[in-house]
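Suppose you are handed a protein chain with no further information: no name, no annotation, nothing but its sequence. What can you learn? This example shows the usual starting point.
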Amino acid sequence: MKFSTIGTSWITESFIAAAKQSGSAELHAVYSRTEESAKAFAEKNGAKQWFSNLEAMLQDEESDFIYIASPNRMHYEHMIMCMENGKHVFCEKPMVLNESQWNHVQETAKEKGVFVFEGFRHLYSPNYKKLKDQLTQVGQVRSVMLQYVQYSSKYDAFKEGKAPNVFSKEFAGGAVMDLGVYPLSLALDLFGEPNNINYFPVLLSNGTDGSGTLVLTYNEFVVTILCSKIAQGTAPSEIHGEDGALRMDHVAPIEQLSFYDRKTKETTELAEKQEQLDMIYEARAFVKMVKEQNLEDHAAGLERSRQVAKWTSEARKQHNILFPGE
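A reasonable first move is to predict its three-dimensional structure. Written in structure tokens, the prediction is:
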């Protein structure tokens, strides 16, 4: 399959490299708002064409799908434009900001007969599949602690008085939208929707959440999620059950995974070696879904995206962390 891109950051370059290495897709064209940056990005990444007019790129029949990695708030608008032009869409997280936007995306995808996919790379990796397979070994789950605490490369600029997109309400930045969606999507994929959610953010001077703690309440256990863009963590994530515990070094990607058996006191290492470019796995999954016209996988992915949008929106509303148009 051939694809075009919206967005010229490092994540776009990573996807281009992953698609090429996986053998699943070939870069055709790139879009940027200026001719200079579009041309430079195309030449750097081997694109055959470049555009500074988005509509023109979307009307190019050579591309089968569009990879979207624009600022968070623009994902929804760009997705609708792509689908209206009959393009399949691979969109970086967060795909949408709330359920209302999700409803429009789902309806448009159905109307145009195209597939949409949210880029949760960690949920397609071999070690995540091992985690899911071994989940029953812990017995009755009683507590879960997931963390994504990573000091942002843009935080120093924010402290200097600048306004990076990832710390801006205008562009739907903040800890829960940029990092919290990784452990949240994992929890929702493993356990389904919670009874309720509570969010305890650390708000920055402009009202965005620099860090925060999400607490998801289920009938028999609680999931606690730590996310931060203003600190650096080293603690592992764990799932605690009556029979043992699963430990992972990180949620995205999981490079180390082990099971501790409460009865035998033994620890079993479960992780396998993965591709360094872990986006390879999601690229393959997306292309396979489209080629096989797998409506079941499409529906499952869309439902997970709906849940993520629903619960992040609910968490933000508790502290009036609203974005333009909401």
